[in-house]
Write a sequence for this structure.
């Protein structure tokens, strides 16, 4: 039997964080809420049979898996969603600098994006990220390294004037 | 500010709460009730449907309908030579292209839901359908990173198609069911050309998401398409010749992005180039340079900024490249001052440049610092 008040407390503490995690990964408010609710429903169902040892990690794992399987469908349904729930597509409030940065993270290949969001937004170690994504630690490091390298390129940290590079051979 | 610091800063700016959170729990309770109803309904429907199938419908997996039979009236046939498949749609399915080579099929169920299925080629990490390739280890002796590949989540099972190809089925069950099928679909290299292991890892990937209640209706239609897709063009076993090879673009290849292959105190090694992402045939051409700057000026290093041209037929890659077209630079003996920035620059694409922050140790002040192309996989 689930202790409803305990679960509600868990829900209240996690809902916002899960929505933000979903939003940083998808860029859609509607999808973020969908993923968070879905993850919490699954966590509740799991809780009913046996409380997960670490329900916060469990909920995140569900969210990441669901997002993975929904990613392609989400692209297809984007127009449909925009038509139905236009006002919900508006992004929640973030500073401009943060918006630009997270938008760039979102443009990365899925694995690199997941690694960076979990490492920097969730403040998880690489070992934690490897566990959550079910990947070898070396692969997580590789994705992280490549993701950061791409961000540096796109955001211009220390950008080099390319004209000089082209002029010399 | 370093990119890591900017990300940490951006993370602190994400609020602790989410807009509209006050009513979220009520929505959650409604959703929970809906999930329970769907679970009960789908269990009942699945039982009835299974009973019906057992009585009325011969198995679509048993090979009763061999690939290549005559098309039924009104059935649409899709041909995708670059991905090497021809697909006859099951009755009621419609196709639309979503760009990037994906084909999206849709179907309206009896419960008035629209089910979507994506069909594309990908590289699979599952050894039972990818020719036994260890895809994480295989890419290249000089590239330790893995390419983008498909590793479907969920419970896995396998069967053989009538033509002997192995099919992986991965089911993820929740409120919706996400089911992925991967059919072994190896790429056929032209006669006489090197054919690296990676080309064997190509699969034809069908990904369908549906409500659980609709799955008994959708499943036989999907599995019929999975079992009847035919190889054409560049797919192994195809009767037609290899199709053309356009220039690589967009997502055709996975940019190695200036990856650091290895670094000791004395040597910095940097890799540039690309690896196939989906096993699509295309011609890769790139002019790259490793450039080291200090305070925005080109550093005095032998070979600094010298262009390297990569030309390779993908997905085969350069000879010996295991599906990779890549170059490795080896930089030694840096005795200069200031903060050196190391970048792999695409010379034909202004604004490019990966930024790495590492320098080799100064080993001999009397000798110049040198950047050398240590291993070039495409000449």
């Amino acid at each position: 039997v689930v202790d409803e008040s305990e679960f509600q407390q868990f829900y209240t503490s996690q809902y916002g964080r899960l929505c933000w995690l979903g939003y940083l990964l998808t860029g859609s408010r509607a999808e973020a809420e969908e993923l968070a609710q879905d993850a919490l429903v699954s966590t509740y169902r799991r809780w009913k049979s046996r409380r997960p040892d670490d329900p916060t990690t469990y909920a995140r794992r569900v969210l990441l898996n669901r997002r993975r399987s929904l990613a392609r469908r989400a692209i297809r349904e984007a127009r449909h969603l925009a038509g139905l729930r236009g006002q919900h597509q508006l992004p929640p409030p973030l500073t401009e600098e943060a918006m630009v940065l997270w938008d760039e993270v979102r443009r990365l290949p899925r694995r690199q994006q997941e690694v960076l969001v979990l490492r920097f937004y969730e403040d998880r170690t690489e070992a934690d990220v490897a566990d959550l994504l079910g990947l070898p630690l070396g692969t997580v490091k590789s994705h992280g390294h490549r993701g950061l390298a791409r961000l540096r390129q796109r955001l211009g940290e220390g950008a080099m004037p390319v004209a000089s590079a082209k002029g010399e051979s | 500010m370093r990119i890591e610091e900017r990300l940490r800063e951006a993370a602190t700016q994400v609020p602790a709460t989410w807009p509209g959170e006050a009513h979220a729990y009520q929505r959650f309770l409604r959703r929970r009730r809906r999930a329970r109803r769907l679970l009960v309904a789908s269990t009942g429907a699945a039982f009835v449907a299974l009973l019906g199938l057992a009585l009325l419908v011969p198995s679509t997996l048993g090979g009763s309908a061999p690939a290549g039979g005559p098309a039924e009236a009104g059935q649409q046939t899709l041909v995708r030579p670059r991905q090497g498949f021809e697909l006859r749609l099951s009755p009621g399915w419609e196709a639309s292209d979503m760009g990037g080579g994906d084909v999206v099929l849709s179907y309206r169920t009896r419960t008035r839901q629209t089910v979507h299925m994506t069909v594309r080629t990908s590289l699979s990490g599952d050894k039972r359908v990818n020719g036994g390739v260890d895809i994480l280890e295989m890419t290249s002796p000089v590239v330790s990173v893995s390419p983008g590949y498909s590793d479907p989540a969920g419970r896995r099972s396998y069967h053989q198609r009538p033509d002997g190809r192995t099919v992986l089925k991965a089911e993820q069950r929740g409120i919706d069911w996400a089911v992925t099928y991967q059919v072994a679909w190896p790429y056929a290299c032209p006669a006489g050309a090197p054919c690296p292991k990676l080309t064997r890892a190509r699969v034809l990937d069908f990904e369908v998401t549906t409500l659980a209640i609709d799955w008994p209706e959708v499943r036989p239609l999907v599995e019929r398409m999975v079992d009847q897709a035919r190889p054409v063009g560049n797919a192994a076993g195809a009767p037609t010749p290899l199709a053309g090879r356009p220039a690589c673009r967009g997502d055709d290849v996975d940019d190695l992005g200036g990856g650091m292959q290895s670094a000791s105190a004395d040597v910095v090694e940097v890799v540039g180039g690309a690896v196939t992402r989906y096993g699509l045939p295309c011609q890769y051409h790139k002019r790259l340079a490793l450039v080291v700057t200090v305070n925005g000026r080109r550093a005095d290093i032998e070979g600094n900024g010298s262009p390297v041209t990569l030309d390779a037929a993908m997905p085969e890659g350069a000879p010996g490249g295991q599906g990779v077209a890549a170059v490795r630079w080896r930089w030694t003996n840096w005795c200069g001052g200031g903060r050196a920035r190391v970048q792999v620059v695409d010379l034909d694409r202004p604004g490019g440049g990966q930024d790495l922050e590492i320098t080799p140790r100064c080993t001999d002040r009397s000798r110049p610092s040198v950047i050398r192309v240590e291993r070039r996989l495409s000449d």
Notes: Helices of chain A lie at 4-26, 29-49, 55-84, 96-106, 110-121, 126-133, 137-155, 162-167. Chain A has eight helices and no strands. The two ends of chain A are 72 Å apart (CA to CA).
